[in-house]
Amino acid sequence: MNSILNFDISSITYRRVEKHEQQQVVDLVCPIFKTNPDMEKSYFSLDASPCYQEGDTLGAWQNDKLVSVVHIRRLALRSNETNEKYSCGGFGNVATVDKYRRRGLSRHLLRMAIDRMEKNNEFDISMLSTEKPNHYTVLGWESVPRPSQIIINWKNITSSSINAEWRSASNISSEDIELLLKIHSNNPRIYQIDRSPSTLFQHWVKKRWQNNAAIVCLYEHEEEQGYVVIGKPDSEKDICVLEWCAPNFNLETKLLSLAAIEIRQRYGSTKPICLLALPQYMKIDELTEWAGPLQIKISKDLMMRNIRLPKEVYEKIKLAYSEGRAVFWIGDYF
Questions:
Q1: Is there a shared CATH topology between the 9-145+300-318 domain and the 149-299 domain?
Q2: Which CATH architecture describes the domain 149-299?
Q3: Element (H, E) at 60
Q4: pLDDT in tens, 90-106
Q5: 96-130: string of b/e by CB count within 10 Å (b at 16+)?
Q6: Cα(190)–Cα(313) distance, rounded to whole angstroms?
């Protein structure tokens, strides 16, 4: 493990990252998160990040060396009840070079980011996912415990009348993406992250699915359309139903059954089925009655911070996510 560098904290300068310095961000982040440089460059691309503005990436510098970075993501959180869109400040690439850690650099940058979100009147709420919640709670973010894994020992899976065609996420075409986006947009949960335009879906959602080696089943029949995604299909330990979207109860149950059948065909008739969210059209007791006994695992990785929403609106959003009626999908990590 690299030792902590003994340096004068007063030598650190905090400021926005300019356009000509963006490559330094990529060079800092990739070794830390083991990510692809092309994906990190997408944070600055207008195709992949159409709402990006100069100043959304903040850096800590020692002389001319970038040693810590924080990136604000401009997302839209849509309310299905009111059809309003709330401006959401997400966070990505909160990273510090090993030797400069535990000196408060990223915390200083996060305070700068909060100040930016609060003063420019462009943000309503902040959401992020992290394995280090304590890093954010001291700055006003709240942990929102949420159902993250629903483990079902499905005893009697009803065969679906749908003829399933599973394809790799890598093979999703531009036409497929348009349809996936349409389905996602037309059948929202009570709150959900907007994935439009399709270039954003292409650069982020598809890549997150690819990172999970996902396979996708797209259903389209007359006026009824839906999809279901299985993540890590070649790993018996990690295979899961990564995401799904449907317009009604009947199609949702068909799609979940399709996924369960595919998983059981791969790993046997007793393989538990893991869903990464609660169904959209069923309460927990209804899910139990339909699929059998289940175990719900709770995650505390989701963090929220109110910027300028009325308190009652902010509390409704928190409650929806904590109850599983709203979902922060893996595909929404962009």
A1: yes
A2: 3-Layer(aba) Sandwich (3.40)
A3: strand 57-62
A4: 998 999 999 999 999 99
A5: bbeebbebebbbbbbbbbbebbeeeeebbbbbbbb
A6: 12
Q: Distance (Å, rounded) from C-alpha 206 to C-alpha 105?
A: 33
The rounded distance, in Å, linking the Cα atoms of 82 and 71 is 29
**Residue by residue, what is the 3-state secondary structure of 201-216?**
HHHHHHHHHHHCCCEE
Structural element, H or E, at residue 75: strand 65-79
Span 9-145+300-318: which CATH code?
A: 3.40.630.30
Q: Which two tokens stand for residue 195?
A: 């994935």
Structural domain boundaries of the chain?
A: 9-145+300-318, 149-299
Question: Three-class SS string for 279-309?
Answer: CCCCCHHHHHHHHCCEEEEEECCEEEEECCC
Q: What is the pLDDT of residue 160?
A: 67
Question: Which pLDDT score is estimated for 3?
Answer: 54
149 burial type by CB count under 10 A (0-12 exposed, 13-18 middle, 19+ buried): middle
